[in-house]
Structures are given as structure tokens and as C-alpha cells.
Protein 1
Amino acid sequence: MFGGFPFEEMFGGGGGGRRRMPQEDEDPELRDTEILYKTLNIEKSASATEIKKAFRKLSRKYHPDRPNGDEAKFKEIQEAYEVLSDTQKRELYDEGGMKAVKDGGVETDPFSALFGGRGRRRGAPKKEKASAITKTIDVTLDDVYKGPTVEWQYEYLKCEGRKTCSRCDGRGVVMEVVRQGFMQIQTQRPCRACDGRGFTFAKEEKKRATARVPVPEGVRHGDKVTLRGEGHDIPGVDRGDVVVTVRVRKHKVFERVGADLACKKTLTLREALCGHTFTLEHVSGNSLKITSLPGEVTFSGAIKKVADWGLPQKGGHFAKGHLYIKYDIVFPVTKSISAGDIATLDAILSRCSYPEIKEKEPEIEVGARVKIVNLSQYPQFNNKRGHVFAETRQGRWGVELQNGKQLSVPAEKLELIADTPKPKRQKSNDLEDDDVYEEEVTPELIEGEPDTTPAVSASAAYDEEEQQERVHECRSM
Ligand SMILES: [Zn+2]
């Protein structure tokens, strides 16, 4: 619905999620929750269909069999798709990056903080915390506007009476002696009595609680809200947190661009020329009555701004973004207008001014004649003329000089040489010029898509098909 909407370019892409501070002892890229979305060139709120579409488009473009294929990039695209196309993996990725996907969860072991070495930094006598309970909540743009409080029930672990494990003496591991022939081999294995924790609890129970999460106004997709000390309750460490990741769902009318809102509106030609009023149901719950100025002409593709009717800026103290409306104009489906009406319309429209209609600028393409300019490393080729014979790498063209030498030249170092206009034929000395004439034609309107005429006639096409089949047979053998 919003394909090709230019707002993304206007604002340089939507606001992504906040980057989590990485732990000191791990690769921060593993915690990143945005790279995969960037690889597929989509927003974090993209739907499953959008993900699939982006994947198809990019994998076609970078497939190693294609002339401009890129195997490394192709692999990256496939890997990103593998995670983002799987609802469960995507959820894990959004919460904790590739680390969470690989671990199959975000620190699900509430006791992990109690272990000696793991995750604890040397020389930092900081008190550890039970690991967080994580949860993803879905909100609408209406919620982003209002900042509601979301409630749900959750379970946390409550433990009492911590005791050092008597079996392993708190080490978490036990030594085992295995006899092999004359040899005695001592091995170490995790203690079964305490699951390798080194301690046990007299009482371990699951408790239910209600979480109340104040969703901040202007919350972004991927933002996290932490309920401090409402998670697992384990003696010996600080009580854990409940960490909520906010996922903003797509809206059927509005698209979010930072704190701005964007939508599309289709007007009839009459409304575009003679003025219009329409109502927009805003995410605030209010109705916006949108009216054109007297005498104003709205053209197709026009973008208008309604100031301060965007979303609240997060932490912006009542500051709001704007609402942008992009207009599309439809023409009447009436097939014919009476001569009298045409005279009236023509009189009116002839008094209007119109934008200049430009012909397409010539571009560098295979076959184009070019001149090499501004080469600094190989100045001997400057001002040499030739023609483009291939597109080599991105932004570079293969140029064949007049002496047959072939070079790869960046596009900005090439100047197009305009084709010299064909000399006009002189009627008197060319007999075939009787074939050249001017004819007045009136095109007819077609319904839907045109039926294309095959380049080769039906009977000839039959032969070609047979030939192709033969080639195919050879290949499959
Ligand atoms: Zn033990």
C-alpha cells in the first residue's frame, strides 16, 4: 500500500530500536537487533509479506549466477531471511540479537547469575542480579500516541532457604574415578544433586504476578521498558527485572516516519481542481476535517503537511511530529465529453500554466558513445573516445576505445557524446521515400493489460520451442 512512498527518503529512514549496551566480554554484533533488517533493506515493523518480497527481490539481484551477483551478499540475505521469516526466531532476534537466536532464548536460566565465572567480570565486586524475565508486547499507533498502561499476568520464581550443596560442597562439580585396565582416570562431571549450581533451596515455587507496563508516549519499535525488581526472587542476588520489548504494529492508514505520520489520499480530478473536504480518523481518536484552500489546485503526487498532528516525540515534553498527506488524482471514467463542455473546459484550462515537460535525458548504457575525462591515474586516456560494451562492476563501465583497447572506467569519468542527428532524407534522389508518409491515427482505449504480440509468428514459434526442448534434453542427460 505504501510502496514507493517517498517519505522514507525525506526523513532518511524510520527510527529503529534503541541499541542495547553490549556486555564487555562479548561480540557486540551478536546483541545487535537491527543488522538483519538492514540486510534486507526493510523496517523493523515489516510484515511477513514485506520480508518475503524484499528477500525475493534481493536474492534475485545478488544471486551468484547473475552478472552482478555477489555470493557473500547473497549468503547474508539468505541468513537474514532464515531468521526473520520464522516468527519464533524473529521474536528472539528482536529481543536479544543473534545471540538469543543461537542460545534459543534470552537468559532463560534464572540462576545463571549465581554461577561463579560465567558473565561475572573479574575485580568487579558488584552484586549480581537474577536474570530478567523477557516479554514482547504489541502496540498500535494509537497506543504510541496515547502511551497506555499494558497489563498481563506472568510467573516468576521465588526461592527460600539457600543451602550449600552437601554432595559437591558448593563446587557444582564432583570428581569421578573411572578404571580402565590398569589405569585410574579421574574425571569431573556436574553435580546431579544441585544441577551443577553448587547450592540448593529449601523451597522453590512459582508465583503469579500482574505486570503493569507504562508504555511511554512516542515509544519506538524495539524499545525496551524495564520493570525493576519484579522478576525472579532468589536469595543471594538482587531480585531480577521484567524487561518488555515493544513491537509497534502496522497501521492500516498511517505510516510512521520518526515522530511524523504519513498517509495517502486519492482525490477525483474535480476535487483536485474545484476544492475538497474530507475527514481523517487520527490515531489520537480525534477526527481531522481536511479542507483545501479556496481556488487551490492539488496535483497528483503533491505532499501537504498538517503541522503538529504527528506522534508525540518520546521524551519531547508535548512536542509532536507532523502529518504528511500524499495525493493521488483519478480522472473521470466518463468516456466522452460534449462539445459545449469541452469549449468551456478548454477556455479555463488554457488560462492555466503547466510544468515544463522534459524529454528523458540520455544516459550511459551499453552501446553509448563516450569520451573519457578527468582520469588522474591514467591521464593518457583522457579525451579518448570509444563506446560502452558492458557494465562491469557497480558504477563502472567497460569502454572499448577506437583503437580496440578495453578499459573499465567509473561512470563519473565518462562523458556522453550526443548522437549526431540523422541527415534528413532528400525526396528527389531516393526512390524509396515514397514509403515515408505522415498518417493521422487515433489510439483506441484498451481494458486492463495489453495482449503482447509475440516477436515470432505462431508457426515459427513452434519450431523454436522444439529447438529449445532439444537443448533442454541434452542438458538433462
Ligand atoms: Zn552439588
Protein 2
Amino acid sequence: MNIDLVEGRDGEASAPGEPVLEAEDLRVWYSGPSGPVRAVDGVSFSLRPGEILGLVGESGCGKSTLGRGLLGLLPDGAARDGVLNFRGTDLLSLKAKQAYALRGGSLGMIFQEPLTRLNPLMRISEHFAETLKVHEKGISKAEIERRSLEALRVMGIPPTRLRAYPHEFSGGMRQRLMIGLTLVLRPAFVVADEPTTALDVLVEAQIIRILHDLRATYDTSLLLITHNLGIIAEACDRVAVMYAGKIVEIGDAREVFTRPRHSYTRELLRSTISLSTTGLNYIEGAPPDLTDPPSGCHFHPRCPDAMAICAQREPAVRTTDAGSRVACWDADRRDGLALSEAESAPLEREEIAVADEA
Ligand SMILES: Nc1ncnc2c1ncn2[C@@H]1O[C@H](COP(=O)(O)OP(=O)(O)O)[C@@H](O)[C@H]1O
Ligand code: SF4
Ligand SMILES: [Mg+2]
């Protein structure tokens, strides 16, 4: 996997304008048999128009819950609180009907396995027309045609295919058609939850081009959840690293990849890079049970840099000189925070029994 940063990428980390989306201390939890599962536990960030924010972290850290929570697409029994504003509208106090009206039109979601939504009996043009008519009452035929062709172009599908049926497309193209059906509505904010896992890795470059086109054509802001750090490095302005329901580091993608501050970010980058070099090299252990996460910094049982204070007190979020936000005692210490000898002593852990002594 190539995570070299591309020179000549648009450069600036921020797009002008008021934030499209602002989350502050957002929490999402599921009810579970042994208490609430705190899948999103106090997340704060904002997105500007046209900005692409990558979201990374191991499975079970709350990425999908955050993405769905932002759009209000949570299952029964899940709840949210905190602050969540979309273009100045408080999403958390919207009535169900108002929230439904926003979804699709202004807020979009690209799912991991979208193929099921294409009707085999309907031409692609009919799919586009139906979607547009539902969300934009009274839209003209000419406008439907224009917008459909525009969506096809952004997705890299020839205009001559507009009247084809779903089965006439390859799997990868069908997936792009589904993305096109989300984008034809020109949503201001889209969540894409691992849109590329089902695709061949060769399609990666194409996806990156599409993401750039998307911004240029629609000024859409995107939260991109992916395991593919190569795509994040090349397509995202900023990256957020999530662990156990919290964003532990967020900043300019280039900065975070070249100078990760949080120990979890470093371990995550190390484990991913080594996938293509020395074989599998996972971070030992697994993310915690979110009904009862570890005290202090949730990562402390797995962290190679853990100090005594890490198990006792949760690190506060701090803005670094490079403009990232990071919550890590070790990063604080490296940047000059004075800790006592007792606080900075290496964390004593119970020995983890190693089963296989060959
Ligand atoms: N519908 C659900 N009901 C209860 N718990 C859930 C549900 N969906 C996800 N979870 C739990 O929430 C946590 C975060 O899951 P998820 O958001 O899917 O993480 P990720 O996308 O990072 O893999 C996990 O502990 C998962 O088991
Ligand atoms: S706060 Fe401590 S345990 Fe958590 S990542 Fe930083 S050094 Fe590791
Ligand atoms: Mg997920």
C-alpha cells in the first residue's frame, strides 16, 4: 500500500466559508444487556464546505455509529445527545419528518453494500428520475436529464449508458451508480462508510479522482470512513483517528501521517504500513468493550508508551502548534508538560499470559 503523500494536492487544509456541520461533545449509545454501549463518547469536530475528512480506527471503535449518528440513521434503542448543527439547524431537536426531509436532499449516505437498492427492472435513467422527483418536487425533464448526466460524468460512467439496465454494468460500475444516485441530489454533506472495501484495489485511483471531482462539482463535504490509509492520504484534507468512541487525534492529513502525536495513531500507521512490507503486524490486543472501557486513557492497556497517569486520568484534548487536536499524556509530555516522577513512571501492568511457548 502506498501512503506517500501526493505533492501538488490542493494544498490548503481548509475550504472557505462557515462550517457545514458542527458536532460538539456528541454522544451516541446503544442499550445493551449490561448497560449502555457508549459507541460515540464525546466527539467534537466541524466540517467546512467541500472539505473531506477521513475517519480511521480499528473495527469496533465507533466509526459507523458516528457516521450514522450524524445523519440520524440509528437503529431503535440507540440515543444521541450533545450538539449537532447542520448549516445552523440543530439536528438533534428536529422532528422525525423534518429530519427525513433533510436526508437525501441535504444529507446523504453511501453505504458499504449498496447493490441491493438498484431495481433490475428499471433503467438507470429511471432510477435517477425517481430519486430526483421524490426530493425535488416539480423538477423538469430537461433538468432531470442534465443532472443525471452530470452525476454519471462525476462517477466516470459514459453518458451513453444512461438508459441501460443495472445488469448491464459491472459490479464496480453498479457501486458507482449507487454513489451517483446519492450525489445527483447534490447533498451538502455525505457520509461514505467504507465505500471501497467491495471494490478491486485497482479502482483506488479512480475513487480518488471521483472524490476530487465531487468537491469541484458539488462542493460536497464528506466524512470518509475507510481502512485504506492510502486513500485518506491522497484524498482527504483532514483525518480523524477514532479509538473506543473518542476522536483521539484530528488534524491536517499530511501532518497527522508524517508526525502522528497520539500513540494510537502511531501504532495504527505502523500496523497498516507493515501489511505490505513485513507481513501482518497488528496492534496487540483488541479495542475495549464499550460498556465498560478502561479507566483514564482508554488505550492504556495496549499502549507501548503508557505511563502511570494514563491509567488514572483521561488526557484532555489539546491543540498542538501544528493545529491538530490530540488527547494523549505522552504527546503532552513531549510538548513540555511537566509530570511528576510518579505520574510519568512507566505503567506497571499485570503480565499477560502468553499461551503458545513453542
Ligand atoms: N445496533 C447495535 N446495537 C448494539 N451495539 C452496537 C450496534 N451497532 C454497533 N454496536 C456496537 O457499537 C460499537 C461501535 O461499533 P461500530 O460503530 O460499528 O464501529 P466501527 O464502525 O468502528 O467498526 C461496537 O462495540 C459495536 O458492537
Ligand atoms: S494517554 Fe498514555 S496510554 Fe493513552 S495513548 Fe497517550 S501515552 Fe498511551
Ligand atoms: Mg463500521
